[in-house]
Amino acid sequence: MSKLEWRDISAFNIDNRIRRVLEKRGMTKLNPVQVEAVEKGLLEGKRLLLASPTGSGKTLIAELGIISHLLNHGGKAVYVTPLRALTSEKYRTFLDWQELGFKVAMSSGDYDSDDSWLENYDIIITTYEKLDSLWRHRPEWLKEVEYFALDEFHYINDGDRGPVVESVAIRAKRRNLIALSATISNYEQISKWLNAEYVYIPWRPVPLVEGVMFQEGRKNTYTVIFNDGTTKKVKGEDPILAYTIESLLNGGQVLVFRNSRRLAESTAKKLAQSMGLVDLDDKYLLKVSEEIRNLEDAGSEEKEDLANLVIRGVAYHHAGLSRSMRDIIEREFLNRKIKVIVATPTLAAGVNLPARTVIIGDINRFNRHIIGYWEGISVMEYKQMSGRAGRPGFDEKGEAVIVVRDRYQVEEVFKKYIQSPPEPLESRLGSERAFYTFLLGILSSEGDMNEKELYNYVSESLLPRNLLDSYFDRAIVWLKDNGFIDDIDGKYHLTDFGKRVSDLYINPFTARQVKDALSSVKDEEVCDLAYLHMLAYTPDAPTIGVSKKDEEELPTMANCELLIEEPYDEDELALYLSALKIALIIKDWIEEVDEDIILQRYGIGSGDLRSIVETMDWLTYSGYQIAKVLNMAKHEQRLKILNLRVKDGVKEDLLELVQIPGIGRKRARMLAKANIRHLEDVITKADKVKIILGPKLGEKVVQEAAKILSHQ
């Protein structure tokens, strides 16, 4: 059967230039999924929806589609991912095609920009949010893009990011595209919506067996029943530890998924104590642990924690870790030096990290939107995690194991997760916040429209017609009443406020909340904490866990009058306190409190701090821009300074120094203590700068300061 055949590349009419690049990668054959895509018209520019398991070579299919299109038709192509980590990974992959003269670029973040520099590039790798933002700014170069590759397309089902993925897909399907996912069950419906042919082959390079593990009647004995009819028994005090060690002793690597950071960390520490019999490269791992200890963007405690675990071939992985820490862990797992990663489920959607064995330790997770509510993970989440099992070239098969409490759960879990397809892809535009943002984005990217034109555009979404009609009418009224749009000669038109909000890429509910809060202030001064709390209480702000202790202590730490009144509703109070905690974290950050103290004081990781700073940088900038467009000069100036301080984590007196590349909060304070506070001081006291920073860095800093001054 042709669908299961590998075929020589020479059997297809593939351009010789493409073939040379593939041969340099050592590729001479296409796998069954790739064969099917080519036969469905990939090289001739046919629009495709590709649904096939993790590891089946979907990225190469997108590469062939993009490069064939560029060679045949010119123009530009955009490859879109849901995560920055994936964007970096795909960027490195596409660099191979520069050999053919195609210039490759990567762009993410900075939503208030049209990235005009991208006009000089042929292949652009970006995120869904960034592409959606770019469309709102209408750069000329974007008109040249005729081919889109939409990766991890199942993210359309994500409650937070789904509306953006759908918005991007609606625009992309007007041109040429290929959409890729490992988990689409309703591929026929989605391919019809995209006006595309579907390629669906459930082929994997490494066969997968899936099972459920439970405790037998005897203590410390666990049985796994697999879907191929086989069973396996392991012994030990803990099922996850027992199965992990059994797999490692047979030469495998293991990914363990836990439903919380606390469990991921505690499980990794228990595993580290059980690694005595596992063969490890001790000298190499010692160097890796020292590399971790020397990182600059991580907290002392987490560096020591991970360094001690890595020596034993184990690591934990979650969003609380700094990006460089996660990079090292991922790199050394791919190098097969780290044998086990215990992770939260976010890793399953991230970079490509296959392992022989995947253990799902929890099938329930805490719903952060509903207090005290636990729910079962989705089938799609399970498929994403289990899909990581099996390392091509190393394993004859991969195994995914779900751990349950007792035998009574086995049949139910088998039926729900192993024997069922993932949930169908559906629209996530069915909420006011998502739909109103969607409408604002359409008017920003497409220009003025009358009601029929706008409705027809909105009708291209996946949203059911009855919901669409209900939301459409309400959205028009709300956007008009709140000053985002007006009606000019029968066409809906963005006001200056509406256009600025759309360009800033913030939710209109966030903008209204900021507008109302700033408008409520008369002549009295507003403290920095009040501004930060106002912004952290908006829909676009991050949320953070609040403990019982926090509930008691946080209100006492607010030493000025806040702009937002404390709510009575329990859910709203939780968000209010989360916002206050974030505001206090950022207040410490801009007062130059040591990072280790911030991490310990608020119980967060270095990755959390970076994420909070990044989001609050964006929100303080947005607040300043809203004040500017609304002619609130006093708020504008205060928020502008606050934004500059949040960006670099400094007091106001260091803002001039941190303009210099290579000068962060610590180095700037070192210079200030030596009475070097201005750009002119750096140049006139160059010798002193070189003594403080070292001759090499000092010389570079002096040169950069001179450049900045000359431009001013």
Give a brief outline of the structure.
The chain has 712 residues and is an alpha/beta fold. The protein contains 29 helices and 21 strands.
Question: What's the SSE blueprint?
Answer:
Elements: E1 7-8, H1 16-24, E2 29-30, H2 32-39, E3 48-51, H3 58-73, E4 76-81, H4 84-94, E5 104-107, E6 123-127, H5 128-137, E7 145-150, H6 162-172, E8 176-181, H7 187-193, E9 197-200, E10 208-215, E11 221-226, E12 231-235, H8 239-249, E13 254-257, H9 261-272, H10 282-293, H11 300-310, E14 314-317, H12 323-334, E15 340-343, E16 357-360, E17 364-366, E18 374-376, H13 379-386, E19 398-403, H14 410-418, H15 432-446, H16 451-458, H17 465-481, E20 485-488, E21 491-494, H18 496-504, H19 508-519, H20 528-536, H21 548-557, H22 570-590, H23 595-602, H24 606-629, H25 633-648, H26 665-673, H27 679-684, H28 686-693, H29 695-711
Parallel strand pairs: 3-8, 3-9, 4-6, 4-7, 5-6, 7-8, 10-19, 13-15, 13-16, 14-15, 16-19
Antiparallel strand pairs: 1-2, 10-11, 11-12, 17-18, 20-21
Structure, explained:
The protein is an alpha/beta fold. The protein folds into five domains: 2-200, 3-Layer(aba) Sandwich (Rossmann fold), CATH 3.40.50; 208-415, 3-Layer(aba) Sandwich (Rossmann fold); 432-504, Arc Repressor Mutant, subunit A (Orthogonal Bundle), CATH 1.10.10.10; 508-649, Orthogonal Bundle (Sec63 N-terminal domain-like fold), CATH 1.10.3380.30; 657-711, 5' to 3' exonuclease, C-terminal subdomain (DNA polymerase, domain 1, Orthogonal Bundle), CATH 1.10.150.20. It has an eight-stranded mixed β-sheet, with helices on both faces. It has a seven-stranded parallel β-sheet with strand order 5-6-4-7-8-3-9, with helices on both faces. The longest helix has 24 residues, at 606-629. The model has no long low-confidence stretch (mean pLDDT 92).
